Amino acid sequence: MRLLGLDVGDKRIGVSVSDELGITAQGRENIYRESDDQAIKEICNLVNHLHIEEVIVGMPKNMNGTLGSQAEKVMKFSKALGSSVCIPIKYWDERLTTVIAQRSLTALNVKGRKKKKKVDRIASQLILQGYMDSKSFKKEWK
């Protein structure tokens, strides 16, 4: 089962894809969001081309667990995406994924534009990997 992970932002959407066994997440090129229609079309192309069975969208919750304005934007975009793809779309708590991605790149001495381009991709990998790991953990304990 292949999964698609998305870190939806106002300008860029970080994209990652699982391997066919659903064990590891690999980053893909970001989608630069010129419009919702254009971004959704690019995501639909990925879903069809890669035979994706589920989309995992990072939900940007506040640290206290509440949903803010960015979360509402993500839900609106996800709802529009759901109208275009006939596969499940699930949310995954993405708190601190961008911070972890930025710190990882800083530790690797990545700077400037290169860092900006990679943060969203890494955040989407963390979202997707977290989701897959939670599913794997639940299977181990059954």
Can you give a write-up of this model?
With 142 residues, this protein is of the alpha/beta class. It has one domain: Nucleotidyltransferase, domain 5, CATH 3.30.420. Helix content is 49%, strand content 23%. The chain is built from four helices and six strands; from the N terminus they run ββββαβαβαα. The protein has helices spanning 36-50, 69-82, 97-107, 112-140; strands at residues 2-8, 12-18, 25-27, 31-32, 52-59, 89-93. A hairpin with a 6-residue loop joins strand 2 (12-18) and strand 3. The model has no long low-confidence stretch (mean pLDDT 88).
Labels describing this entry:
142 residues, alpha/beta, Nucleotidyltransferase, domain 5, six-stranded mixed β-sheet, 4 helices
Unreliable residue runs: none
- Give the terminus-to-terminus CA distance: 20 Å
What's the helical proportion of residues? 40-55%
CATH class: Alpha Beta
SSE-based structural type: alpha/beta
> Count the strands?
6
Which geometry do the CA atoms define? globular
Largest sheet: 6 strands, mixed
Number of domains: 1
Cα gyration radius (Å): 15 Å
- Tell me what portion of residues adopts beta-strand conformation: 15-25%
CATH superfamily: YqgF/RNase H-like domain
- How do the SSEs run, as a string of H and E? EEEEHEHEHH
Query: Number of helix segments?
Result: 4
The CATH level-2 architecture is identified as 2-Layer Sandwich
Q: Please state the oligomeric state of the protein chains shown.
A: single chain
Mean pLDDT: 88
CATH topology: Nucleotidyltransferase, domain 5
